[in-house]
Fold each of these.
Amino acid sequence: MIMRRQAVGRSEYYIAAMRRWVPFLWKEPHALLAGSGWFMLTCLPLVTFGPALIALTHYMRLRERGIKVSWRQATALAFRQCGARGWLMGLTDGLALFMAGGCALSVLEEGLPLPIRLIYALLFIVDLLYLMSGMYRYPALNAEPGAKVGMMAARGFLMALNNLGWTLMFFFAQLLALMICALTGVGLFILYPAAAALLAACAYESMLRQYLPDTQDAEEEQA
């Protein structure tokens, strides 16, 4: 009975994340346009992808809470307070994406022995899970700019693995948003980045409420 209550409470947290995310997309489209626009300009060199995503997550999280924030303040957090941590996290995501693509191609390669194919398939799953954990890693580093990248990576990976079902739900919600924005062409660049970052922030906060419910409730009262 206790486990059932815990499961119900947990699902309420995640459903609340979706209820925060979806209405904001309709009510505040200008925030999506502003966030995505600044993000695209900031990450144009590509190597600044990590800090730019941290800034976008910070910007969208505060906008959803009704707190005024400028992109200059968001970038100050990402590039100054996070320092090289944001750069390193973006680099690891790029490497994971490259490795996932290579493993996928290797699995599909003809004539490859079955044991080797299984190893590549396992590596592909690990890389994909690490990429999905980004929806927790970037908001976590956003909340704790001075934390070590290794600790944030481990936290995000464990959150994704321990709550795989809900992580997949959030991930597929991001994919659905990606497909919808891709159909509009320009929406892929001016709407999707901010929408995905906002869902990541909502998902992380909902996930965190499992472990620190009192702290999260107090933050909501202050907000």
Note: Residues 96 and 127 are 5 Å apart (CA to CA).
Amino acid sequence: MKLESEHGMDGVTMRVHRFVEKRMFSRLIATAPDKEPQYIVEGRDVYQLEVELNGGDVLLEPGALQFHHGQISSSVIRHEEKGFLARAIASSGTGEAAHATRFTGQGTVWCEPGRRHFVLGTMESDSDAMLLDDRAFYACSGDIKLSTHRHSSVAGLFSGNGLVQPKLTGRGVFAVESPVPENEIKIIELDGTDELVVNGDFMLMYSASLNVNIGPLVSGIRNTMRSGEGFVYRMTGKGTVFLMPTAKVS
């Protein structure tokens, strides 16, 4: 087991551990008819999130828990104070569950291991906010709220992230799932002078303070079809963008 990353704040510390899972399987190489099968050991990385609680609390996606030990209590909370239908619509739009499990107290919470990568982050102020890729949310401090952000243009439906996106608001630490490892994520800081144009399929998360316009890369239906780019995000203002350049590499 290897510690990959660690972030902590206000009584909650998150750690990402990496394991190498070794499996033995047989592979028959088509050579001579009497050739014996060759047994090959293959190593694959497995990742697990650990959350240490020192008087703080953490919210996990439903079903994420593997075990916890210490003096920890648990409860189920709703992410947003909406009616059943509104929560169902928001959940279907973002791919996130409408509820989370809250763990509070002193001790350690271990989440189920998996092959997807975890990216840890912190938000320093109660007014900080991040917009996430659909289904990226995994865990956050109890002071952070998960809600839904609705894009003002129907072009959001074709942007790669849909018309609504998950939104984290508040102070604390959080963990998101990523299809690529953290060292393959490109972080771009916008200072208010430049514009960033990006295909939404390669977006992991970005500051909610940024001004975002979703639309075609070029004007005109024919030019859009010729460019082959479809709808893109045009981002201006001050904030941070986390991109996944290798997300669609097979």
Note: The two ends are 27 Å apart (CA to CA).
